[in-house]
Design goal:
The complex is a heterodimer of chains A (about 300) and B (about 500).
Chain A (H helix, E strand, L loop, with lengths): L1 H5 L23 E6 L2 E6 L4 H7 L23 E4 L6 E2 L10 E3 L3 H17 L6 H9 L25 E3 L9 H6 L9 E4 L6 E4 L15 H5 L5 E3 H9 L7 E7 L8 E7 L2 E6 L13 H5 L9
Parallel strand pairs in A: 1-5
Antiparallel strand pairs in A: 1-2, 3-4, 3-5, 6-9, 7-8, 10-11, 11-12
Chain B lengths: L7 H5 L11 H14 L5 H7 E2 L1 H8 L4 H8 L3 H13 L4 E4 L1 H4 L4 H15 L8 E4 L6 H6 L6 E2 L3 E2 L3 H11 L11 H9 L5 E5 L3 H4 L3 H9 L3 E6 L11 E4 L3 H4 L2 E4 L4 E5 L12 H11 L9 H11 L8 H7 L2 E2 L27 E2 L18 E6 L24 E3 L1 H6 L7 E5 L4 E8 L7 E5 L28 E7 L4
Parallel strand pairs in B: 1-12, 2-3, 6-7, 7-8, 13-17, 14-16
Antiparallel strand pairs in B: 4-5, 9-10, 10-11, 13-18, 15-16, 15-18
Helix pairs in contact in B: 2-5, 2-6, 2-8, 5-6
The chains are: A alpha+beta (about 300), B alpha/beta (about 500).
């Protein structure tokens, strides 16, 4: 009987209780290292890249992204660590107590410059704005390899209405394959095939995307640093010469479809949506979307 | 993963339980019995935070593994293993969607799952819990704001005089002291002639209601129908007045609330098309015609009024929503962080508030029974790239989009001598449609599937039954009895 009386009545609000407890992650040790002559203390497990950032030192990165596992393939973030024979990638190398790091020595600058020159001599970097900025900073001259330098030039792959794969612009940073695989989507529609200069991003047996496992989440576009992967609308507008980022605004809002609540960045130009992306630092999905979130917005401009 | 179909999610699962459509309570109760008999029930929690356990134990005692195997089609050993894995897990969640709630006993299905959470103590703790996954970006927010028949904003019951008085004094108006109708009750009221005027905002019931013949008949009989929508939908075609609405997520300011109770800001990114007004502006204009001037429409002002009336939203200023990337309710004041999970009060010493009750729920098969005449179980659902009646999603060129088809198991294809792509007549006790066949190896013999997105090609809801759960008002979209016949053109 008494149990019955204690059952909650919908008429009476449940009383307020203290906020629920959330487990605190285990405390991490402090580690002290020296970068470019300055001492810095960071938490154990941080990378050299993290430590450099706290000192305000900007380290170039191409294959690194905070939401993906480091793969150490581009080598543009390399730094010199005293006691280490080769240069080490700052993006993945964890700090160790007493480490002495140089990020702007002649050897580091030379290495970064050559990496950028190799890439820019073989790849179309016309839409890779960040890479172009690094080239300027390190005075890269890809033209020194002459007009006969090998390139990856090839026709763009346009096999669906949502996005274009222009592998002439691919620097093989692996980010798209990682986002398609275990770091985000777990679809494994694309991977790295071939060896050496012939290494490239491919679907299984090079089948068209439309026959592959692709679910068109476009998370590969979200992480591509060069514009090799691009929404079809942006691609067509660029081809027509109407794409103009200086006239675009970006607005943060929430996806109109399911209940996950993905944050969207709406890129609009002349009152029309031209692209949708998602901020990497948002706690709900860390920049990842699905086909509806990234591409399903066209109904707002439908005149049918 | 528990699903009658072996979906692509099921292919990722460590274990897939291919439960028969509508047998969920049998499965949940058998898991409970197994957990109790194996000494895996969380007795400390049951004692401290729950009520009604004895009656519940007596009820589930009837659900042996063998009985559940018969009723669900899942092997007894698999049910046993699932029960043990769930009960022994350090943290466990049960997540569900419409497979649980689109049944004539929807609320009982949910209660059966809540019982499992209470039995094992997987509620009110970090990483555990019971999660209805919301299919729409603001279906949670709609309910939170009082767009449900019995609640005012913030889930405050309309029949509680003290709470109602608070709203009446803020609104300067009298509120109806009794709860209203949910959607299915509205259709019943139309049938009785009690509901003659309807104002539909952003909903397409002609395509989305079960038993479409009845929905069309009743809505065509309304004296006055107003539809506010982005598109000229099938429902809009019946309207006396159409108000072109704006796209909330990119043409207006405001908030939505996600599945995890996170209130987030939406912002205007582009202007609405010519001749279209902000939804809020339309409502303000209507108020003016009814003799009330609410002033200039402004989303933040409306939100702040809500905060002053709904304690669980009180601490959510626009500024904080922006800074924190959304806040999960309840958030009682501007220093409150919001709550990542609910019901931790059930673990407090001493207990705060009422105990959580176990509910006695019994297995009942779907209303639309299988028979010799209608031997196939049809279930309905959604595709990854499409959304509800398709008004939004059909307007982008998805490479994943398939033609509307009736999906059958390859075994049934053989049995009924139909081939892939062939048009067949699909009939239920309410209607019949023509559909091309597609074979899906994720279906077992006797189970068929239709998507709900393509009503212009296949009017799925000509077939479905409007057997309604009295407690939730939801129809049994998930379980229709059908037969298929070869179609011969005359």
């Amino acid at each position: 009987m008494s149990e019955q009386l204690q059952a909650p009545s919908p008429l009476i609000p449940i009383p307020r209780a203290p906020a629920p407890e959330i487990p605190v992650p285990a405390a991490r040790r402090d580690v002290q290292i020296t970068i470019d002559g300055k001492r810095v203390t960071v938490l154990e497990g941080a990378t050299i890249l993290d430590a450099a950032k706290t000192l305000g030192i900007e380290t170039p990165t191409l294959c690194f992204l905070e939401t993906l596992t480091p793969v150490n393939v581009c080598r543009v973030c390399v730094v010199q660590v005293e006691g280490s024979r080769p240069l080490v990638p700052a993006c993945s190398r964890k700090v160790e107590e007493g480490m002495v790091v140089w990020t702007d020595s002649e050897r580091v600058r030379l290495s970064r410059r050559v990496v950028l020159e190799f890439l820019a001599s073989s790849v179309d970097v016309s839409t890779a704005l960040q890479l172009q900025a690094y080239m300027k900073r390190y005075e890269a001259r890809p033209e020194k390899f002459g007009p006969r330098a090998a390139t990856v030039v090839q026709p763009p792959k346009i096999d669906n209405e949502l996005y274009v794969r222009d592998y002439s612009k691919c620097i093989l940073c692996y980010k798209c394959a990682e986002a398609c695989g275990v770091d985000a989507q777990n679809t494994f529609a694309i991977g790295v095939a071939g060896r050496g200069f012939h290494a490239h991003i491919a679907t299984e047996f090079e089948i068209p995307l439309t026959d592959s496992a692709c679910v068109y989440c476009g998370n590969c576009i979200g992480v591509c640093p060069t514009g090799a992967l691009m929404g079809k609308i942006e691609y067509d507008m660029r081809a027509a010469g109407t794409w103009d980022e200086s006239r675009q605004t970006r607005t943060e809002t929430i996806c109109p479809y399911c209940g996950v609540g993905c944050e969207l960045t709406v890129h609009s130009q002349a009152g029309q949506i031209v692209r949708v992306s998602s901020p990497l630092d948002h706690s709900v999905t860390q920049g990842n979307l699905c086909i509806k979130g990234r591409f399903g917005w066209q109904f707002t401009q439908s005149h049918k | 993963m528990i699903d009658p179909r072996r979906t692509s999610s099921a292919q990722w699962a460590d274990t897939w339980l291919g439960v028969d459509v509508g047998s969920d309570i049998s499965l949940a109760n058998a898991m409970a019995r197994e957990i109790i008999h194996s000494g895996l029930a969380n007795e400390k929690f049951i004692q401290h935070g729950t009520s009604g356990f004895d009656a519940y134990r007596a009820c589930v005692e009837k659900y042996t593994l063998e009985r559940a195997e018969r009723e669900t089609g899942v092997p007894a050993e698999t049910i046993r293993q699932t029960a043990h894995a769930y009960a022994k897990a350090k943290r466990a969640q049960i997540c569900w969607t419409l497979g649980i709630t689109e049944h004539h006993n929807a609320v009982d299905n949910v209660l059966a799952l809540i019982n499992l959470g209470l039995l094992t103590g997987h509620v009110g703790r970090y990483g555990g819990g019971l999660n209805p996954l919301r299919g729409q970006n603001n279906v949670q927010g709609g309910g939170d704001m009082g767009a449900i028949p019995d609640r005012l904003p913030g889930f405050q019951h309309v029949e509680n005089a003290e709470l109602r008085a608070k709203f009446e004094s803020a609104y300067g108006a009298k509120l109806h002291p009794r709860q209203g109708w949910h959607l299915s009750a509205m259709f019943e009221a139309m049938e009785r002639g009690e509901l003659t005027t309807l104002y539909v905002l952003g909903e397409n019931p002609i395509d989305s209601e079960a038993d479409r013949h009845r929905a069309v008949k009743l809505m065509s009989g309304l004296e006055f129908l107003v539809v506010q929508d982005l598109f000229y939908t099938k429902t809009a075609e019946l309207a006396h007045v159409i108000l072109p609405g704006s796209a909330g997520w990119c043409e207006t300011e405001g908030t939505v609330t996600s599945s995890e109770r996170r209130v987030q800001r939406v912002r205007a990114a582009v202007p609405p098309p010519e001749g279209v007004r902000d939804d809020m502006e339309i409502i303000y204009e209507l108020a003016k015609r009814f003799g009330r001037d609410w002033g200039k429409p402004d989303a933040e002002t409306v939100w702040n009024e809500l905060r002053s009336l709904s304690p669980m939203h009180a601490g959510m200023s626009y500024k904080r929503l922006e800074e924190l990337g959304g806040i999960q309710w309840p958030c009682y004041d501007e220093s409150h962080p919001g709550e990542m999970y609910l019901h931790s009060r059930l673990w407090r010493e001493p207990l705060i508030g009422p105990r959580a009750p176990f509910s006695v729920v019994e297995f009942e098969p779907p209303v639309d029974a299988l028979s010799e005449e209608y031997p196939i179980r049809l279930t309905t659902g959604r595709h990854l790239d499409s959304y509800n009646t398709g008004e939004q999603s059909r307007r982008f060129p998805s490479p994943l989009r398939r033609e509307a088809t009736l999906d059958l198991s390859p075994e049934d294809g053989k049995r009924y001598r139909v081939s892939e792509g062939e048009q067949v007549r699909v009939s239920s006790r309410r209607g019949s449609v023509l559909a091309p066949v597609r074979f899906d190896p994720g279906l077992r013999p006797g189970l068929a599937f239709l998507a709900v997105h393509f009503h212009d090609e296949i009017a799925t809801n000509d077939l479905t039954i409007d057997a309604v759960d009295a407690k939730s008002g939801t129809s049994e979209f998930k379980a229709t009895a059908i037969r298929i016949e070869k179609y011969v053109e005359h």
